[in-house]
Amino acid sequence: VVKVAAVRVIPVRLRFAQPLRTAQGEFAERVSVVLEVRDAGGAAGYGEAAPWPGFGTESVDEAEASLRAVERLLPGASLQPGEWPAALENLLSGRSAARTALQGALLDLDARRAGRPLSAHLSVHAGSTCGAPLSRVPVNALLTARDPEALFREAVLAREAGYRAVKIKLGGEAVANDLARLQAVRDGIGPSVRLRGDANGAWSVRDALAALEAFARFGLEYVEQPVAAHDIDGMAELRRHAAVQVAADESVASEHGMLRLLAAGAADVVVLKPAALGGAVRALELASLARQSGMRVVFTHAFESAIGARHALHCAAAWGDADGIHGLATAGLFEADVAEPPGCHSGSVAVPAGSGLGVTL
Ligand SMILES: [Mg+2]
Question: I need a surface site. Which of 3, 78, 185, 308 has the fewest CB within 10 A?
Fold first, then answer.
């Protein structure tokens, strides 16, 4: 039982090192909310609410309002990890980002008190995983150059840096241009580094079938979100007929979407963001359901600060897939961060081996 002595809500505003261009527009900064929970002994746990447009969570303002209510309600309460009083449940109903923050902070605190890394703590609490927690999590490099020559150089650098998977955005231009870009990347990384594409919902089913047919010769591991997030039937059709394996990303940003996709068996791979799914415990449960349906699981960040990024890292480590390569390379994303972001060396990120999350503000 954790007796909560103090709670602090910390609004966070971070500047992207490079403005982030997405289907929702261009973003210069990332706004989120960090939650700190302390016990009577002064030990602290940290979580983060990191809503993002299109991920299906509440807004940042709504998450902050919920966490301000938690700040008033929680001090003095005794909590059984994983079991919350009804008042708290009601407060966080439909607020998956705020729920992620509170659950993350309590799990971090609990793991610190138990004297073990959060990943080890999660693997005990999360039920069925692939194996023992990992001490390093392999990650893919995101290659961002537009033209093939620059992309080739970026690909060579990624291979030399030790990455075993790279990812590029596809579908933003004509298929012929994407063919030239894929050729440049494959030439740069060689035959054994995994090549991943991400179309962010750019195509119709028909266009996706044609594009993936043309791309198959580059040995793509998978292409994320070839069609729009809501088009689960289209994803299912592509899983059956496309020449390249398909991954669901935006389609499974919310728990509702994930359950729809699972029921339809509509992807070979699911890309899960613990931040949007109510936290690591639920994300690991959903990952386990996906695995039982024959899908592979890749964990990714949701542009969180160093707090949320570490939570996603411990979650991927707890999943314990020795063959998995995740979307968790976050170093250098922001001009400055609330703490040192997890660093990447030789294509993988070390999981903090101390107790809890491994970071304190
Ligand atoms: Mg994606």
Answer: 78
